[in-house]
Amino acid sequence: MKNQVNRILFALLREEICGIAPEAEVPAEINAEMLRELYVYAKHHDLAHLVADALAKHQLLPPEDEMTSKFEKQHMMAIFRYQRLNYQLEAVSAALEEAKIPFLPLKGSVIRTLYPEPWMRTSCDIDVLVHEEDLERAIKLLTDKLEYKNEGRGSHDVSLRSAEGVHVELHYSLLEDDRANNAKAFLENVWSYAYPAEGKHCQMLLRDEFFYFYHVAHMAKHIEIGGCGIRPFLDLWLLDRQVEHDEEKRNALLEGAKLLTFAEASRALAKRWMTEQELDCEDVTKELERYILGGGVYGTTENRVAVQQKKRGGKVGYILSRIFLPYNQLSLQYPILKKHKWLTPFYSIRRWVTLLFGGKIKKGLREMRINRKTSQDDTERAEQMIRSLGL
Predict the structure, then answer these.
(1) 166 exposed, middle or buried (CB, 10 Å; 0-12, 13-18, 19+)?
(2) Is residue 49 part of a domain?
(3) Of 314, 296, 236, the residue nearest 271 (C-alpha)
(4) Domain range for 22
(5) What CA–CA distance (Å, rounded) separates 117 from 82?
(6) Confidence class for position 313, pLDDT limits 50, 70, 90
(7) Residues 386, 380: Cα–Cα separation, whole Å
(8) Nearest to 223 by CA among 357, 387, 378
(9) pLDDT tens-digit profile of 262-279?
(10) How many domains does the structure of the chain reveal?
(11) What would the pLDDT profile of 353-390 be if each residue is shown by its tens digit?
């Protein structure tokens, strides 16, 4: 049944994203069990709203049915989430523009314009980049003027939340945990690739090659920590086909960061999913597909542990790497260490206390159990995939 659910899912996604009418992949009727499987699978990847829209077009949702209600709810929630996020993005953008604070909208808020309808590309938050020297002024502006609540500073962003519950990640850096090969050296230069949006002075846009590079680097980072779901591959497909671009410029950045091999495998997988025919793909693409489809939109701890065990020297090495963060990662979480490296032992202890008393102890214990149970075969398989992807 799983293979049939896969075929139906991607046939419906192709229709929604590419306008390709499904043929034999989608049956004239879908039984209750299949509909339930399809709902669970699509929701796992945050795609149930697209599947709901496609099923409704084919009149495959039975009236007054539990699964129909669930699909319709996901459809309506996606539209509601988009409208709410877009309203807040406009408010944040206007406030930053008026205060003359340069800023860059990132990720979903930009990519959704490539979809047939903007609500089709869901997001759980708004991502905006500002210069680090403007960070405190931007926080004060959004908390005072728009009444956002400051929920704390992370390794590369500050978490803010509106009274209506909209989450804004105010980035001051694109660096995250020093992952994705050599991406760090390029991501540090993000503002050199920015230019003003039409009719704006402070709202900036990224040149195509860098926006594409950042998208691939962000995907690679999530592959290393458990998976990223199907959605970024749909984004990649649209970036390759809906945006006028210079392939050489894109590939030069990717090659410089040693991400071109991963990008090519990701493009091949997106093509496999978004075209009508089954394509002959290399083993690494098929293994990436297995990894992604099994992980869901946020990936799995099992995937992350399997990947990181090999990188950290086995089960003991993985545990030690989780307990004792290296300085380069700890300093991203606590920027004060960049000026006062001698404080590293004290902030290591602070991190442990935060983990113990910050509600994350159960998550940590579960991760340790998974680390203990992960087999050598799983570790070797994940390591082979990561190596083949050039990560």
Answers:
(1) buried
(2) yes
(3) 236
(4) 1-61
(5) 10
(6) low
(7) 10
(8) 387
(9) 999 999 999 989 986 555
(10) 1
(11) 666 665 565 666 565 565 556 666 666 777 788 888 88
